[in-house]
Task: structure prediction
Amino acid sequence: MFILRKIYAFLVDTIQSILVAAAIFLVIYMFLFRPFQVNGESMYPNFHDKQYVLTNLIVLRMHKPQLGDVVVFKAPPDPDKDFIKRVIGVPGDTVMVKDGDVYLNGDKLDQSSFLKSDVKTYGGSFLREGETVTVPADEYFVMGDNRPYSSDSREWGFVKTNELIGESMFVYWPVPDMKWIHNPYTSTPTNK
Result:
């Protein structure tokens, strides 16, 4: 009888521990942080295919995305998929692509901290070469870092605020690629 009570108490404690851990995980997953897998080469060389990125779900509730932030959002061409891209234009900004360069509010955008100097950016079916678009309120213009191989705002237009999932903050897998994700326009990377 004593052994049965011990076994029963052990099982109850174990089940309670598992339920508490599951509840904590669920709260974190639903409201705070979520892992996302990078699929494809659209953010190469800064992010690689099959890398896992931890994305902060609450930061965008406290402040709006800024130029240079790396965000995860529902893909406009297919809302069942998630995309990861870099914010290039925020509401009110004008964006133009001309002769392989990006112009933001009439000035050539310095992208040297995250793109190699030989990377060229050309227009697409939404943002054509030499044309200017103005980013509407509550929308964002995004591009992949691997410009020739990225399906982004140049092709399908703006990302609405309600399509944003979160801001990417940390690459955690594979282990050799582990790093904090920094906004090149608002912070200085502490590790490379």
About this structure: Helices lie at 2-32, 59-62, 153-156. The longest helix spans residues 2-32. The longest strand covers residues 78-89.
